[in-house]
Request: fold
Amino acid sequence: GAVVSQHPSRVICKSGTSVKIECRSLDFQATTMFWYRQFPKQSLMLMATSNEGSKATYEQGVEKDKFLINHASLTLSTLTVTSAHPEDSSFYICSARADRVVSYEQYFGPGTRLTVT
Amino acid sequence: GQNIDQPTEMTATEGAIVQINCTYQTSGFNGLFWYQQHAGEAPTFLSYNVLDGLEEKGRFSSFLSRSKGYSYLLLKELQMKDSASYLCAVRDLSGGYNKLIFGAGTRLAVHP
Reply:
């Protein structure tokens, strides 16, 4: 149990276009999902916390108009990178926290490798 | 603010024991996690400590001292497949949000 999927696993897009990444919790409900970005040989940087039915909470320095987050249901959150530029090329990872009474663990998706040319 | 420090790289020999240290400073501490991450893959959960002491799980053990802001991950009977990055992460409740903040990770290389 506790599987999180991401789609697509890899995407290449041209500069100026938008890319949507989906994150799904397959066998549990997740009121809260998180989006991270990871550059090569660096750690995961939290971008935003996605809350079902409300606006996402963005970390300092993350542009909310550039990285659009939608948490449409208890099992789906999407991240849209708008007007992508080469510097947005990175590994994007989502994670979900299960809505259990006692829950401390976050389950991570397999990640999406974005390359902007 | 938050600050999590761990060594950048470590090397060890197959069959040996290695200890990866992590120190942290955070205002809303609510637990410390260790994750393993192989290159190009998502992190996988290893351990969780919220109270002081040692948690043992097979070949892996994790220790926490909240008063010292210190944790370590102990890997025994090292195997080649243990070569990976090990991420220390702190759950932070400051600001009213429950979020996981990661350290930079320690790249462990296990050699024969």
About this structure: Chain A touches chain B through 24 residues (CB under 8 Å). The first strand of chain A starts at residue 4 and ends at 7. The radius of gyration of chain A is 14 Å.
